[in-house]
Automatic annotation (TrEMBL):
GO terms for biological process: glucan catabolic process. Keywords: Glycosidase, Hydrolase, Signal. GO terms for cellular component: cell surface; extracellular region. This is Glycoside hydrolase family 5 protein. Residues 66-312 form the Glycoside hydrolase family domain. InterPro entries: GH (IPR017853), Glyco_hydro_5 (IPR001547), Glycosyl_hydrolase_5 (IPR050386). SUPFAM superfamilies: (Trans)glycosidases. Residues 1-29 form the signal peptide. Belongs to the glycosyl hydrolase 5 (cellulase A) family. It comes from Bradyrhizobium frederickii. One of its GO terms (molecular function) is beta-glucosidase activity.
Length: 340
C-alpha cells in the first residue's frame, strides 16, 4: 500500500494503521489469518470422532453452535477426529459431499476464533493392516493437501492418530515421511502434527523427522495407568470389571512425571514442540480421583510448555452433557481452573 502525505503525517499514519487493521480483520474473518507458530495451540478438546455429521446428521449430538461454548469455556483449539477412510470410494477417492461438510466444519471453527486440527483418525485400520493403511493414508493426504493448499493457514494437519499395532517405529517413520513429502509439496508452510509410536514405553527417541522441517509438532497420548483411566469401560471385558480404583498417591504422581520427563528431555534436545493430543478418564472412575488426575496432567503439560487436548467433548469420557447442553462442571474446572 502506498500513501502520499505532505503536511498531515500524523493523520496519514493513523489512516494507514486503520486501513491495515481493517485488511487484517477481513482476512481473519474469512479464516485466512496468520497461523500461530508451531506448537502454540494452547488448550483444546477432541470433537466429532463418532458423530453422524459426516453422514448428513443421523446420530449427531454435536451441534456446530457447541463451538461457541467451547470458545467461551476457554479452549483455543479443537482436534477434529476424522475417519477419512470410510468415505473413500474406488481409487481411494474421498467423497466430495463429505469433504464439503468438512469445509463447513473448518469454517465454523475458524469463525469462533478456534484453531482447527484435522486429525486422520483411522487407527484400527492402520494398526492392523499396514499395507492397506499405507495406500489409503497417502491417497488421503494427497487429496486433503491439494484441497487446502493456500486455504485456511490456521488449519493444522495431523498425519495419523495413534500409529502402532502391527507398525514398527521403522515402518511408521517410512510412512510418516512419505506423507510429509506429499503434504509439503503443496503446503510448505503448514503446521503438521506427527505422532510417536503409540506403545507403553513412549519411544520418542525412535521418531525420525526431516531435520530441516521446523513446522512440525510432535504428539503423544497419555492414559497411564490405563487400569485407572479406563476402569468400567463397557466395551472391554477386562476394563468393564475394574473399579472403583483411586489415583493420586505420591507414587502415582512420580510415575506420571517420569513419563513426562522423558518427552521433555527429548523435546529440549531436539528443539521440537510437544502436543499432548489426548488424555482423559472414563466416567466410571471415582469423581474426585478423576478430577485430580485431569488437573495434574493438564497443569504439568502447561508447566512444560506443551499444548493439550482433552478426550473428549461428548460421547464417552465426555466433558459436555449434550442432552442438557451444559458442561460437566467438575471436569471443566479440572481442565481450566482459572476460568471456572
Amino acid at each position: 500500500m502506498k500513501v502520499v502525505c505532505a503536511r498531515w503525517s500524523v493523520a496519514c499514519g493513523l489512516a494507514l494503521a486503520i486501513s491495515v487493521l481493517a485488511i487484517c480483520f477481513r482476512a481473519d474473518a474469512a479464516g485466512q489469518g496468520t497461523a500461530r507458530a508451531p506448537g502454540e495451540l494452547g488448550r483444546g478438546i477432541n470433537i466429532l470422532g463418532y458423530d453422524g455429521i459426516w453422514e448428513g446428521g443421523w446420530n449427531a449430538p454435536f451441534r456446530l453452535d457447541n463451538l461457541t461454548a467451547i470458545r467461551k469455556a476457554g479452549f483455543s483449539h479443537v482436534r477434529i477426529n476424522f475417519f477419512g477412510f470410510k468415505f473413500m470410494g474406488p481409487g481411494n477417492l474421498l467423497d466430495e459431499t463429505v469433504l464439503r461438510r468438512l469445509d463447513a466444519v473448518i469454517e465454523e471453527v475458524l469463525a469462533r476464533d478456534l484453531i482447527p486440527i484435522l486429525d486422520e483418525h483411522d487407527t484400527h485400520v492402520c494398526q492392523g493392516d499396514v499395507t492397506g493403511c499405507t495406500e489409503k493414508l497417502k491417497a488421503f493426504w494427497a487429496q486433503i493437501a491439494g484441497r487446502y493448499a493456500g486455504r485456511y493457514p490456521k488449519l493444522v494437519f495431523e498425519v495419523l492418530n495413534e500409529p502402532g499395532g502391527q507398525m514398527t517405529s521403522a515402518s511408521w517413520n517410512a510412512l510418516l515421511n512419505e506423507c510429509l513429502g506429499i503434504i509439503r509439496s503443496s503446503n510448505p508452510g503448514r503446521t503438521v502434527i506427527a505422532a510417536i509410536l503409540n506403545v507403553d514405553d513412549v519411544p520418542v527417541e525412535e521418531l525420525a523427522l526431516p531435520s530441516g522441517d521446523r513446522n512440525l509438532v510432535v504428539t503423544f497420548h497419555y492414559y497411564a495407568p490405563i487400569r485407572f483411566t479406563h476402569q468400567g469401560a463397557p466395551w472391554s471385558p477386562t476394563f468393564s470389571r475394574l473399579g472403583p480404583l483411586d489415583w493420586g498417591s505420591p507414587e502415582d504422581e512420580r510415575k506420571a512425571l517420569a513419563d513426562f520427563e522423558k518427552m521433555r528431555s527429548w523435546a529440549e534436545r531436539e528443539k521440537r514442540p510437544i502436543y499432548l493430543g489426548e488424555f482423559g478418564v472414563y466416567e466410571a472412575a471415582p469423581a474426585a480421583a478423576r478430577s485430580k488426575y485431569l488437573s495434574f496432567v493438564a497443569r504439568n503439560a502447561e508447566r512444560l510448555g506443551w499444548s493439550w487436548a482433552y478426550w473428549q467433548f461428548d460421547h464417552d469420557f465426555a466433558a459436555f452433557d449434550s442432552a442438557r447442553q451444559t458442561w460437566k462442571p467438575d471436569i471443566l474446572r479440572a481442565l481450566i481452573p482459572a476460568v471456572h
